[in-house]
Amino acid sequence: MIGGLILAAGGGTRFGPDPKLLADIDGQPVLQRTIDAMTQVRALDRIVVVLGAHAEEILPLVTFGRAQPVICTRWHDGQSASLRCGVDALTDAAKIVVALGDQPLINPQIVERFTREPPGVRAAYQGNPGHPVVLGPEHMRAIRRLTGDRGARDILNGPLIESADLGAPRDLDTPKDLAAIRGEAAGMRPYANPSAPAEAQLAGQPVPRIGYGTMRLTGPGVLGPPADRAEALQVLERALQLGIRVFDTAWYYGPDIPNQLLAQTLRADPRPVVIATKLGWEYDRHRRLVPAHSPEKLREGMQRDLRLLGAGSVAIVHLRWADDRATSEPFRRALAAMIEMREDGSFQHIGLSNVGLGQLEYALSRTDVASVSNSFSVADQTDGDLVDFTARHGIAYMPWLPLRGAGTSQALAISAWAPRLDATSAQVALAWLLQRAPNILPIPGTARVSHLEENVAARELRLPEAAMDELSARAT
């Protein structure tokens, strides 16, 4: 196990009425930014935050996420006492990466690098030792013998690793340091909320938590080609460049248009992606979408998807049900057909779309279900119980219409928060979904590159608890 240790127990210099660990850095306490950055380091199996002098003030004002606060009652004995408290709380760790609580500009990628360094290594800034540092068993034993203000750097014997990317200044000891850090942090987004992990599990692999829905790459009414085919291709190309790896599509979009555009894009840029399609609808003679749930219709749609995508198989296929959420005989027959197609190799994982809890439970009694794709947003939280169920069972939840809500009271609340967070309303709506549950993987669609870039940037937006509480309370 690799542990993470944040030392935040000292009295510290005060800047005005508050401890330095609660000093404001671009809208967040110093310590909050440090915690949020450290909790993004996936290699850290467990993280401890050692509090002391100002624990009572800090605890109600800081969100710890997956980090564990530990109160060190002996903090006044010096840094050695705080270190011992942290090491004692991480007794199962084979290695511990130590950071200071007043490192609000710490970069998770740099900390991730230090988790791979051998014990004894220290960070260096223009040749001067600093944090993070890497402790091994011998150092943990030595720390238990330290006294006074001696710290980890006093007993380390490894090389100095230059890490200028950690941000400067390195020590937050004076108002001048605080002003410098504020200047560097101005306009910089805080690292994402630890309750909103960067990746979710889908089709047996970790994927970034914002995907792309292709429905908007069509003409009016989801019929015909887009107004600008070249721009539609640019959107898909840019999605790949931004790290999007999940593409939601269906043959009946257009029909066929998004599948053709996606296939053309992936031929030119064959990066590994997860394609999720949907079956269960078709157009009638009046060009209206109607249910098509018979086994024959499902197989026809599957072959059409594969032919248009130029693929022998896809990762996920969702059975897109109608508005009736009863576990009826037609639903059972359709699910049986899906299981047969998966066993034939047409796709690897079954998903369900527009279903209720009873239908999902029935499906789970017959097969594994990789994902659920239902309508869910700040404005439409009626599926909240199903979201929680999927989170508990490790099933990805891919909300469609994630930005629904124009003209509603929910939209007004989002619009009120957006300027306070230097974000767009769409970014606030997506950030709410990402923080609502760790298995949510929104698939917003757009026909514009600029909107796509805004949507992806929502992964870095952290909503404060007040915003989450207000928006979550507006369930419909």
Description:
By secondary structure, this protein is an alpha/beta fold. The protein folds into two domains: 2-185, Alpha-Beta Complex (Spore Coat Polysaccharide Biosynthesis Protein SpsA, Chain A); 199-472, NADP-dependent oxidoreductase domain (TIM Barrel). 35% of the residues lie in helices and 19% in strands. It is built from 16 helices and 22 strands. The chain has helices at residues 30-38, 55-58, 79-89, 108-115, 137-143, 175-185, 229-241, 257-268, 295-309, 329-343, 357-366, 384-392, 409-420, 425-436, 449-457, 465-472, and strands spanning 2-8, 14-15, 18-19, 24-25, 28-29, 46-51, 67-71, 95-100, 122-125, 128-135, 160-162, 199-202, 205-208, 212-213, 246-248, 274-279, 281-283, 289-291, 314-320, 347-353, 371-373, 396-397.
Please render the helix and strand layout as text:
Layout: E1 2-8, E2 14-15, E3 18-19, E4 24-25, E5 28-29, H1 30-38, E6 46-51, H2 55-58, E7 67-71, H3 79-89, E8 95-100, H4 108-115, E9 122-125, E10 128-135, H5 137-143, E11 160-162, H6 175-185, E12 199-202, E13 205-208, E14 212-213, H7 229-241, E15 246-248, H8 257-268, E16 274-279, E17 281-283, E18 289-291, H9 295-309, E19 314-320, H10 329-343, E20 347-353, H11 357-366, E21 371-373, H12 384-392, E22 396-397, H13 409-420, H14 425-436, H15 449-457, H16 465-472
Parallel strand pairs: 1-6, 1-8, 6-7, 9-11, 14-15, 15-16, 16-19, 19-20, 20-21, 21-22
Antiparallel strand pairs: 2-3, 4-5, 8-10, 9-10, 12-13, 17-18
